[in-house]
Each structure stands twice: as C-alpha cells, then as structure tokens.
C-alpha cells in the first residue's frame, strides 16, 4: 500500500528521511511514518502420499490449476491462515506444516509465504470460491499449473522436500 494521506487523521503526508529506508511518508500531526506494506498471502501445497491438492479458480488464472491460498487476516498468524484457508477451501484437515520460503508478486504487491502440509483427515468439500478441486499426481502438477509461476516454484520445493528422484515431473519445463 502506498500511503498518500495519514490513515489516522487524514492529513496529506510529507516525505521524511528514515535513515536506512530513505524517504518515507510521514505525518507531522501524529509523528508517525507509514512504510509501504505488501499484502501477506499464504500458499499451501497439501500433499497426500504421491498426490498434491490442486484447485481451479478462473479469477486467478483462466487455464491453470493452483494451490490453496489466501490472505493473512488481521490478528492472525500465517500458520493460522494456513490451517484456516485449507479448511475453508477444501474441508480437509492438515498437519505437519512446513515453511518453504517466500516470493513477491510485484504487480500485485503480494508477499507470498509458501508452505507444505500433509493431509491429515477428512473428505474434500469444495467451497463456493473454488470451481474444481481434487488430488493430482504430484508428477503431473507442474504441467497442470501452466500459468502459476509462484505455485510451480512451491511444487519444485515440495519435490525436493520429498526427495523426488524422477524426471516426469519436469516434462513440461523440458519441452519449452
């Protein structure tokens, strides 16, 4: 978010030097700096044996499947978001979540915090925000996620985490 006006008093912000951060929007009335803040979002690769949970949400990508994802809510840890989003979008329970790293989507100002989780229990119960959801062979995931660059990076990390030694998972990338 790029602040132009103080969210506390509404006064137009001025730029003030913040030492190592450079020029930062500042409100002299409230004596407060307002740093640009990206929107944190969790991306979760849910794994069950040799399968991974993939979704179809055309408002994200028209021709690509994606991983479970969602925005981190106010007063919520990223880990809380991971459990909540998986439950809300899929109806299943997960366990053993593991942080895999982060990515930044500049044009959308998104900080993508990526996780891997193991399926624990439950049947898939698709939420209304999801068009399609099902388990896919993890070896096929990269080919099914043609438009989702962040998701593909997460799947590659998952393949590394599970000690994948095959080559089939990378077929789509080799053929480009």
From TrEMBL:
GO BP annotations listed: NAD+ catabolic process; NADP+ catabolic process
Cofactor: Zn(2+); Mg(2+)
Reactions catalysed, as given in the entry: a 5'-end NAD(+)-phospho-ribonucleoside in mRNA + H2O = a 5'-end phospho-adenosine-phospho-ribonucleoside in mRNA + beta-nicotinamide D-ribonucleotide + 2 H(+)
Nudix hydrolase domain span: 37-156
Keywords for this protein: Hydrolase, Magnesium, Metal-binding
Pfam family, one: NUDIX
GO cellular component: cytosol
Record-linked InterPro entries: NAD-cap_RNA_hydrolase_NudC (IPR050241), NUDIX_hydrolase-like_dom_sf (IPR015797), NUDIX_hydrolase_CS (IPR020084), NUDIX_hydrolase_dom (IPR000086)
Any one Gene Ontology molecular-function term assigned to this protein's record: NADH pyrophosphatase activity
Keyword Magnesium: yes
Similarity comment: Belongs to the Nudix hydrolase family. NudC subfamily.
Protein name: NUDIX family hydrolase
Species of origin: Clostridium intestinale URNW
């Amino acid at each position: 978010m790029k602040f132009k006006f103080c969210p506390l008093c509404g006064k137009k912000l001025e730029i003030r030097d913040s030492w190592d951060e450079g020029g930062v929007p500042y409100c002299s009335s409230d004596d407060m700096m307002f740093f640009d803040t990206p929107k944190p979002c969790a991306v979760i690769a849910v794994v069950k044996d040799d399968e991974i949970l993939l979704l179809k949400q055309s408002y994200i990508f028209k021709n690509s499947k994606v991983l479970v994802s969602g925005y981190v809510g106010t007063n919520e840890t990223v880990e809380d978001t991971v459990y909540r989003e998986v439950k809300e979008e899929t109806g299943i329970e997960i366990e053993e979540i593991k942080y895999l790293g982060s990515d930044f989507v500049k044009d959308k100002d998104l900080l993508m915090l990526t996780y891997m989780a193991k399926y624990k229990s439950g049947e898939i119960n698709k939420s209304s925000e999801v068009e399609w959801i099902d388990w896919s062979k993890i070896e096929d995931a990269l080919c099914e996620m043609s438009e989702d660059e962040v998701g593909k990076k997460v799947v590659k990390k998952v393949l590394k985490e599970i000690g994948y030694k095959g080559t089939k998972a990378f077929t789509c990338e080799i053929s480009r």
